[in-house]
Batch of 4 targets.
Target 1
Amino acid sequence: MVSRLRKRGASVTVVMTEAATKLVAPMSFRTISDSPVHTQMFEEPRRWNVEHIALAEWADAMVVAPATGNILAKAANGIADDYLSTLLLAFDGTKIVAPAMNTRMWENPATRRNCHTLLEDGFAIIEPDVGRLASGAEGAGRFPDPSVVVEEISSHMHRDRSLEGKTVLVTAGPTREHFDPVRFVSNPSTGLMGYSMAMAARERGARVHLISGPTSLAEPRGVHMVRVTSAEEMKDACEGLWDRVDILLMTAAVADARPLRYSENKGKKNRDDLLGPVEATPDILANLGPRKGERFIVGFAAETPGDDALENARGKMQSKNADMMVLNEVGGEHSAFGADDNRVLLLSGDNCEELPREHKRILARGIMDRVVKALPGAKK
Ligand code: CTP
């Protein structure tokens, strides 16, 4: 991260807690940052009270990465008992934390509370990933790829609050259409694109409602989350919020078919009609589109390669009354489903712009930039 930030032209000074110096030698950061590393409050020369104030005034942004549960708790409560926490208290520029910890610590109500306090106090949070943790366990709390962290630091530093006062509804993930308690019709969407869109909207100051089908992703902080299972439930949740919505980002991969019959008991697999007849699920976007009013609507089209992908996506944009359509390739070698990165074509009116392959969290920011620029009244 330090060298990536320097490559982007930033001057970086590293402050380490005592615990951090047990994991990485301060000399490594001294070399990479080409700047003295601060570790202790009372280090020589004894100019600490001047020094930490001078450092607080020098920096444009302060990033705590990785941020432990302990530093989040201290920062949320204004505790200043070492160099890092004192500096945080003295600093009034852009404050960013990138939490990384064990899943139970991340999900703990105290950590949730602290994150909300930090967001209210104007801190930015770089959400941790779900994945393999240092302990070997799988779960939410993993430090994201440094390229993602650096990209998010940069966008927080160029703080764009263009969606302040706006309400953004994001749908994410697959839906599941059950035909018995343990079997369902669905698709391989992980929800990462939708969750990333929600984070990108929140970052710009929007009030965000995230309606999510079943995923294994962690709940982004500072977002109102509604969990649903089926297309019908997602439709009801969208309808319930529709009056308040300014922008709809319909990222969900809604299952297209649902079984007509539901069995309370697990059906036997050798039955010929295990799944039975199916019917189409409600098309949520096509239902909301005609009631668009002043809202801005973005659809996400999933098309297999070849076919008439572009034409189909344009057709969907028109028939569902969307202002913008994000065309994703699915099913082929570069399927958007299940991958951390993606490339998309962005359609609006007659325009078509390619956004090259990036991590979905970075790509979501690129899409949000275009949405903000396309909003009525935006500076072109
Ligand atoms: N969509 C929806 N409700 C559905 C199906 C899709 O709201 N039942 C939305 C998706 O969330 C997406 C857009 O419509 O924003 C396009 O979805 P896509 O799956 O690409 O298209 P479909 O309309 O389902 O058409 P097809 O599956 O035939 O390509």
Note: The chain has a mean pLDDT of 92.
Target 2
Amino acid sequence: MAGAGISTSAGIPDFRSPGSGLYDNLQKYNLPDPQAIFSIDFFKESPEPFFELARELFPGQFKPTPCHYFIKMLDDKGLLLRHYTQNIDTLERVSGLNGDKIVEAHGTFHTSHCLACGKEYCLDWMKNEVFKGGVPKCDVEGCEGVVKPDIVFFGEALPKRFFDCVKKDMMECDLLIIMGTSLVVQPFASLTSRVPDTTPRLYINREKSPPMDPFMDLLMGGGSDFNADKEGNYRDVFWEGSCDDGAQALATLLGWGEELKTTVKTEQARIDKETKDSSAAKKS
Ligand code: OAD
Ligand code: ZN
């Protein structure tokens, strides 16, 4: 299970880190509250702030991190059952991890849909529109609907694939690794409680998840029950530090330390070269 913290070393801000998190840096949009930028009701009234932000954070401008390559390596070694991510930066795909192994719980920029007629648009179309500026509008004659990337906003349901996979995977999971998430957004955070009681759970993060608000717990039907400090804890481990360092430490313990370092170096250099070549091709 992963969140924004696995991508911060790629230069993408997370949401809730004080100071650097996205929600502390949205003043210029004059939002009623920071989360409004990802709220479907607000978007339907004022889509402009979201598209302005999308221009800054558009996927494709960033490189996967050592942590992403560690996840890919888990799969290469035949150990990854599934990677559940809340991220919409597509860096898991860029690292080469097969789409079958990924559950993009909060959707993806890969496809977009017109909110009025439902016409689907591809990533390149959306990218072009976003960089043109303004709000992307449907090209079906007479429609003029706003086209929204298929990322899950507050107030929208998670993709069907999330629920289908959870049903199958969670009972089979024999080690749950949680990385770079504050474990506060539902229903994602509550996945921690869906694995068997005998499944060890390792949480790699800069800080512990904030304690669950008992009122929200009642309302939402259970948050994350991860608690390494609980008396009688027999299976939860909290590892404090960066996701990249945690992933590297784990790889070293598995005997893949050097392999991971080499993969990161080669893959990142390959992406740099591709980016250079494609911008040179555009110029000529
Ligand atoms: P958050 O910003 O809530 O949490 C990120 C966590 O990662 C925090 O606990 C940070 O301390 C930690 N962190 C940041 N950088 C790190 C690093 N390099 N190494 C280790 N830990 C690091 O982000 P998420 O939990 O992903 O949803 O947020 C969940 C959802 O809230 C997002 O998917 C998004 C947001 O609103 C929607 O927009 C629907
Ligand atoms: Zn339309």
Note: The pocket of zinc ion (ligand 2) is lined by residues 114, 116-117, 119, 138, 140, 143, 145 (CB under 6 Å).
Target 3
Amino acid sequence: MTNHDLLIIGGGPAGLAAGLYAARARLSVLLIEKEMVGGQMATTELIENYPGFSEGSSGVELAEKMREQAERFGLRIELDEVMSVDFTRPEMAVTLGDGERTGRAAIIATGRRPQLLGVPGEIELRGRGVSYCATCDGPFFRDKRIVVVGGGNSAIEEALYLSRFASEVVVVHRRDKLRADRVLQERSFNNKKMRFVWDSVVTSIEGDGKVEALAVRNVKTGKTASIATDGVFVYVGNLPNTEVFKDEIELDERGYVIVDPELATSARGVFAAGDVRVGPAKQVATAVGDGALAVISAERYLENV
Ligand code: NAP
């Protein structure tokens, strides 16, 4: 069992930036990622607001570049799931499928996952027309009808992307105003393939083996309606991936990690970076900034223990 200076849990933009900073600072560092590097960023078709990429970049490409850059400085990445953690020992321990890894400090960068709608038919038809990833599944919907649920940046950005394939994109939103940034709103209102169903919530997703229709209810009038569709893309927010840490560090009431200005958590030597921590901005740019700051804070901590 090797003891590392630093364990990084999560390989999205926050974890990869932390990996780059730590490896370049010559810390012995291990990054543990459950599925694939890039996290939610890698499920985004086009990222236009990450500086340095004047034409934008796909999330997958940006993730690959971040990984390559960090590995060039010696970052080691293990693909495995963290089953449990123990941050009370001087050498904090992370248990993976094949045993324990220990480190003198740790950075939590596990990000978030999509929130489900929680309506009948959603689970049953997942992968059969119900999707949470336009980048992954959009191309299956060429010339088909699509419904996107939600009114935030993700919903509108992905609806715009899906309009490239679909014959029609209907956005179902529970209010009569979008939460998405103004630039995305303008683009979506000008998009000939898009239309909006306002003040409406989805009550069920229907279909025999694949999505065929969506039942919606107008929250102002109480009227119900059915929208015929081939696909439903759900973008109604996210949940932090913090279940495994809940007995070890302080979380807020929604499950986000509470940090101080240096990104230190309530556990000594444990820092948190990116979407997983409490904070108003959930952006690739802010996640990367967090990754850098978390390593600088971890280095300061390591020098003093
Ligand atoms: P979000 O901003 O929380 O938006 C979630 C949307 O879903 C809101 O419109 C919300 O309605 C709606 N909603 C929530 N629960 C619902 C339910 N049960 N039924 C129906 N609708 C529901 O989440 P997000 O769009 O995933 O974005 C998450 C964060 O990432 C945000 O901070 C966002 O700015 C950021 N992000 C940024 C970019 C970018 O900068 N280009 C791209 C993607 C994401 P209400 O509006 O009524 O609350």
Note: The chain has a mean pLDDT of 96.
Target 4
Amino acid sequence: MKITILTLFPEMFEGFFNSSIIKKAKYKGLVEYRAIDVRSFTENKHNRVDDYPFGGGQGMIMFPQPMIDALRSVKTEKSHVIMMTPAAPTFTQKKAHELVSNYEDIILLCAHYEGYDERILDYVDEVISIGDYILTGGETAAMVVTDALTRLVKGVITEDSTVYESFENGLLEHPQYTRPVDYEGKVVPEILLSGHHEKIRLFNLKESLRKTYRYRKDLLEKRNLTEEEQVLLNEVISEENEK
Ligand code: 6GU
């Protein structure tokens, strides 16, 4: 997999590309990362990359020329081109899987400042937002997408660790604990130390339902529960409403 970022701030990606799992994926040869400096493509004699919006309005708008020339310099027939913008559908785990299974060459365009010339969208395959808030630029959003895609590339992390996670099965992940058993009087739930696999499975499933009920009821509405899950959820609901 190859991920190319087009940005006015390539230096923002230096730490990101050279840390943790991203760095590992790069050294294992599983993912190739590049940040391309869009400003170096400008044909403006003062090196400008933006100007005031026609019709008036706040802020500066990125010219199409530097971004599209940068895109042309890296795009191949295989490339899937994505514009990072808050005016777009929200990125999800499902979208992450879809991108990793369908494309091996992904290009992410980052607009900075207040916006970009709408005609840039004629050169992209899709638009992605990472959530309902406004960032100063698409760079941190592109890092979010790059991170989420990387960990789904085969060989980057153990496959098991992606199966039970939040969103993979439509529920939030259950709480987890490690040593010590007693930390400042807060004790790990006894069942987890019992070695009783079936009881542990039920306990974790119930706590997963509890987190989802507390924080993301919308996920429960979208998901068909098994009979076992419905029983556990009913217990959770009465316990939560007693508090
Ligand atoms: Cl992709 N860009 C910006 N500037 N803000 C955002 C975003 C993207 N996604 C959510 N907020």
Note: The mean pLDDT is 96.
